[in-house]
Amino acid sequence: MLQPLTILALDTCTETCSAALTVNGKLFAQIADAPREHSQRLLPMVDDILAQAKVTLGEVDLIAYGRGPGSFTGIRICTSMTQGLALGLALPVIGISTLAAMAQAAITEHGATQVFCSIDARMDEVYWGQFVAKDGIATLVGEEHVSAPEAVEMLLKSEQAIHACGTGFAAYPQLLALAPDTTLCSDVTYPDAKYMLLLAQQGYQQGLHTSVDELAPVYLRDTVTWQKLPGRE
Q1: Which end of the chain is less enclosed by CB atoms within 10 A, N or C?
Q2: Residue 108 neighbours by CB distance under 10 Å
Q3: Partners of 129 in beta bridges
């Protein structure tokens, strides 16, 4: 049996800022709704959960980071913070989709088997992806997209239960009409780093981790248009 990894996960890609750590099967996590304070809040969160777990950054095996999609500013903060933490110790890193993290939350907390995730991308567009649970892990169906809401295509089995999560559904309620049996997970609005940990463990076992020099944010939009989060200065 493989020894559980000590994994640190970070996310600032949307309005929330979160950090999580798994050590010997124990979870330490923090999350804050602070869209204007990501760069100020993340490192103290990391320091706090490391202190709670009584481990040092040097004892971490892998850093998982929210790679997007989401706010361009938020993605840049997350990737730069990951670089700062990983570089000095040459820690391996792995990017985790924000959409997959939300899908994992729906699977873990609601027993979802099919998950439709959507984040409001502004400019009358949404980031979206659809997932199924395979052995309890969110697995992407097709690809992740950015498009107008009317261009979203249902790839899941509409005759079976679908859970929906993310800010895209509040912004564009018509998305829920794509499948008749859709349950909106009102408690899964944003990604949370603690749901990235299982995805990171699987990705590491599949060899998807990289050196920090190969860190790869995902914006989805070909043209990066800088849009601030609500309330961000």
Answers
A1: N
A2: 17
A3: 117
Give the per-residue pLDDT at 1: 42
Please give the structure tokens belonging to residue 80: 């730069």
What letters, b where the CB count within 10 A reaches 16 and e where it falls short, cover 132-150? bbeeebbebeeebbbeebe
Segment 176-214, tens digit of pLDDT: 999 888 999 999 999 999 999 999 999 999 999 999 999
Q: Which two tokens stand for residue 149?
A: 């809401």
> Residue 50 is encoded by which pair of tokens?
């490391």
